[in-house]
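Problem: given the chain below (326 residues), write out its structure.
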Amino acid sequence: MTQPGGQAPGQESATATIYWYSQTGQLREAAAALAAPLEKAGWQVNWVEIKPVDSFPFPWPIRRFFGVFPEAVDTSGCTEVEEFTAGPPQHPGDLVFFAFQVWYLAPSLPMRTVLRKTPQAFAGRNVIGIVACRNMWYSAAIEVQRSITAAGAAYLGTVAATDTAPALATFVTTLRWLLTGQREAFWRFPRAGVGDDELARLRALGEDLATVRRVSPEDVGVRVRDVLARNRAAPVTPAIAAADLIAGRLFRGWGRVIRSAGRRNPAERAILLGVFVTCLTGAIVAGLPTLAAVRVISPARFDEAVRRRLAPVLAGTGASDAGARR
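Solution.
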């Protein structure tokens, strides 16, 4: 027998706390789709919005869009954010959702700031990452997982919502959306961003997650991982993932060079940024087809190598459990 909202008599209401920052609103929409079934099942869902003191513009002015690159890829890079109240005291049914945008294959500066400056908000908690992006979330999720684990939390896995339109189309539509604010379909191009199909998938995942507290709150971490794995919460496209992981390392190297040049001479920083943008365009055109061709040689070995690299952020494949064991 359960009470209204799906809780058993005498059972504490489960709590989910969602930390989030979104310029476009897409990430908030994705997190809301996941959280709606939890609220319907009687969970207490607390939304904690992260607000930069100096807001990042949307749509992005093109110089600001590329200008943020060197700091975005710096794993120690931060920005100042307004003070916020952490989630309520934990009990075994609690979950924390860390919803992050991807900036240049890294978590956005506001969300990285939360991880670096307020790790106590996550210590001893069960944490799920949520990301909504075009298609490359892998390097950013690895950085988030490492920071969450370093804070003494259990990273249970990642929920990734992506733009499922053809990759060449999304390259155009995403850039148009970010630089002009125009998201709707045009000519023969689809609407930019995460679509209704992905939001429906997140709602179905939320419905499955909502049952975890009622089944076994003491073993919630194990059961949540099972739910995430069963629902393929973070589908992996091996060639795109490999491109992301390789580019992530290259981006960090480029970022170090540009930051160092900027300390010597701002003009040199601008020149190097221009060189980076030119190289980035060429890499996008040539890199992914090259990796796809390499994968044809031995797809099983290629895919297995990618999955081993991503294991810490994928539920059911060795997600980190350094903290919050129950």
